[in-house]
Amino acid sequence: MTSLDDAIGRIDLLDAARAIDHWKRYGLDLTPLLGAPSSLDGVPTRALIAQDHGLEKALDQRIIPQIGDLLEHGTPVHLELPITNRDRTVGTLTGYEITKRFGARGLEPNTLAVTFTGSAGQSFGAFVPRGVTLTLLGDANDYVGKGLSGGRLIVRPDVNAPFSAEDQIIAGNVILYGATDGELFLRGKVGERFCVRNSGATAVVEGIGDHGCEYMTGGRVVVLGSTGRNFGAGMSGGIAFVYNKDGSFDANVNPEMVDLEPLDDEDTEWLSSLLARYVVDTESPVAQEILSQGSEMASHFVKVMPRDYRRILEATRAAERDGRSIDEAVMEVSHG
């Protein structure tokens, strides 16, 4: 054989004796598991036809031709485009071109700013790098900001929308899945598994469904409204700040790996600054009302802190204060 294609279908070359040498297999006939697939006329046993992903029809193909100066010289570009729910992974191909040209460092903030109007398909803003800001006036499907890599995403209702954003779903499920860096502002509520496996992005939202911050390892999340059940399950890193004026949040937390704490002065200063920028980008009356509370604002929030993450932060600060190696301090804490 000279290739994997030559090996496909060669059941006669498989030896399962060692794999099934266990007392539990006695009395079982496992022969059918190694049976050759029955051949069908005209149906090949291996891939012969190249897949067509329709990339030439992607909305990014309307963006890329307009950013030639940006790719060549880093010249800022601002665009406005309509979008529909057939437009998936918008921004990803554009982000690829930028990363190919400028590398992991990306660009200065807002070098490329694109405003879309309409309803975005799945994975809006997936893997978008630094320097790219995508604003969506409308709503979005699942996986907004999947793998976000330093870019900024803003999702808010159209200015002529006849409803209160804080009472409506603005985007779907599994938002910021696996994000490593960047920022996401959502004016409105979203679905389940918000920020699952987020490892570095910052997000603000006005309400979420079940399993928020599941398996999160880094980044910061601010929730200005209600949450579903099982918040923080498997959350080993990062910090969440949840508006809890009515005290109902405690019952929705999975306490296995996280503690609930009040905000300190540093937290309050950071949160106030973030919400001020959130108001500028989204015009959210919810955030405006919260900021208007002044010194009382912090008492209405609860801080969700993973226990192991707190130990790492404390060890890092102690090492910096004492002039010791941060890496060694983290390793000591990690190994108990």
From TrEMBL:
Signal peptide: none
Keywords assigned: 3Fe-4S, Amino-acid biosynthesis, FAD, Flavoprotein, FMN, Glutamate biosynthesis, Glutamine amidotransferase, Iron, Iron-sulfur, Metal-binding, Oxidoreductase
BP GO terms, sorted: glutamate biosynthetic process
Entries under Gene3D superfamilies matching the protein: Glutamate synthase, alpha subunit, C-terminal domain
Pathway this chain belongs to: Amino-acid biosynthesis
Cofactor(s) required, per the database record: [3Fe-4S] cluster; FAD; FMN
SUPFAM superfamilies: Alpha subunit of glutamate synthase, C-terminal domain
Family annotation (InterPro entries): Glu_synth_asu_C, Glu_synth_asu_C_sf, Glutamate_Synthase
GO molecular function: 3 iron, 4 sulfur cluster binding; metal ion binding; oxidoreductase activity
Domain (Glutamate synthase alpha subunit C-terminal): residue spans on this chain: 82-268
Recorded family membership: Belongs to the glutamate synthase family.
This protein's name: Unannotated protein
